[in-house]
Amino acid sequence: MLFFDLPSIKRCVECRGCEQECPAFKAVKGYDPTRLNREILAGRAMEWFGYEMVWQCLECHTCTEMCPQNYSWEKVMTIFKAEAMRRGLVPKIVVRGIATFLKTGKLGEPKTAVRKALGLPDAAADGREDFLRLVEALGVWDRIHG
Amino acid sequence: MEKATRKILDLLELDYVDLDGFTCCPEKTLVRNMDESLWKAVAARNVAVAEKAGCGLTMSCTGCYSVLKSVQSELKTYPRIKREINESLQPLGLEFSGTQPIRHLVEVLNSEIGPGRIKALVTRPLKGKRIAVHAGCHLVRPSRAIHFDDPFKPTKYDQIVEWLGATSLEYSTKMFCCGGSLDRADQHSRALNMARVKLDEVKALGADAISTTCPECFRVYDNNQFLLQRDNGVQYNIPVITLQELLGLAFGMSPEELGMDGHKIETGAFMEGL
Questions:
Q1: pLDDT tens for each residue of B73-91
Q2: A53, A123, B63, B115: most buried, per Cβ within 10 A?
Q3: Which CATH entry fits the domain spanning B113-271: 3.40.50.11810, 3.40.50.880, 3.40.190.10, 1.20.1290.10?
Q4: How many Cβ atoms from other residues are within 10 Å of residue B55's Cβ?
Q5: Is the CB of B194 inside 8 Å of chain A's CB atoms?
Q6: Measuring CA to CA, how many Å separate A15 from each of A12, A45, A63, A96, B152?
Q7: Measuring CA to CA, which residue among A27, A30, A37, A20 is closest to residue A74?
Q8: Of the partner residues A64, A97, A130, the one whose CB lies closest to the CB of residue B30
Q9: Under a CB-based contact definition with an 8 Å cutoff, are residues B263 and B240 in contact?
Q10: Does A134 touch chain B (CB under 8 A)?
Q11: Which segments in chain B show pLDDT lower than 70?
Q12: What range does the domain containing A52 cover?
């Protein structure tokens, strides 16, 4: 269930105290959560889930640390990300990452040959079996169906 | 990074074990935004694996640190969430209690080992070296869960660098995010732009190296710097030397012993004058 705290978003648009500290705002052309906030206040949030700006929030927590109302741009962007995930409107690399994670509990495997060349011990065994039982027990596949 | 970490832990005579049974921490952008209950349960399971073995957790990755500390803090604060998570861990024979510490390597080095023991091991002081420390966002944030250093002006990483005889530089983009998550969202050219912000300033300052402990920040400043130089014609040639490598070098180890020959950006210049 999508929930934006509209009074907080209204104050956020009026404040923008974190704007000049946000690394994405400074370095990513076109990244402007205030624009998104205005769209939410105008009742047009639905049109923005597939937009790439949603994935430009770095989750560095700069705004979260600064926010006088403990709301922040990051909160808005993560709501968008979660909803984009539910609708399948996500970058391909994210889909691949999730698939790998849900099958193995990890995002990659240790490189045995490299480890050997560096003289490192074999990587410890992972907890894949327990992880898969946890995914099953929590009914994750039913929730993210499709 | 792992090789250098093991080398310095051995030299500092820290007792550590490689435990079986871990999974991804799990990474936040991907997993938390997909399914928050799975994110918490998997993180709590990792902590519970360590607790069962009677061990605290220490990591070099700031991402893992921030995730595990966030979940630990939430479970310790809200008994209901802890109970729900433990219900899902129970069939696996695991329980999260929150009794074992979760510490970043910087925390262990700064607050437990401390300047006395570290300085005593220095045989090759990093004198004259000017280091741009990149602590990384998740070493200190979210501060409500981390409780370790200032979320905007952290100093503890810098202190360790100074104990080795080097100078830690003050610079305006010190806490500027590496932008690694843009690569994980298929926005590579934007990730490169992001890396340039810090690389430009550090180059202008004439720093001898960037230093980080986070594998993702390391990848950005080493590999993405390499790609910028190869494809965009800019020349930075700023070595990226992890804290573990700085310690190893100051303790008299060779770059090869520390696995530094695996870097994309040549580190040879850093050794001059040492």
A1: 999 999 999 999 999 999 9
A2: B63
A3: 3.40.50.11810
A4: 15
A5: yes
A6: 5, 20, 12, 38, 20
A7: A37
A8: A97
A9: yes
A10: yes
A11: none
A12: 6-86
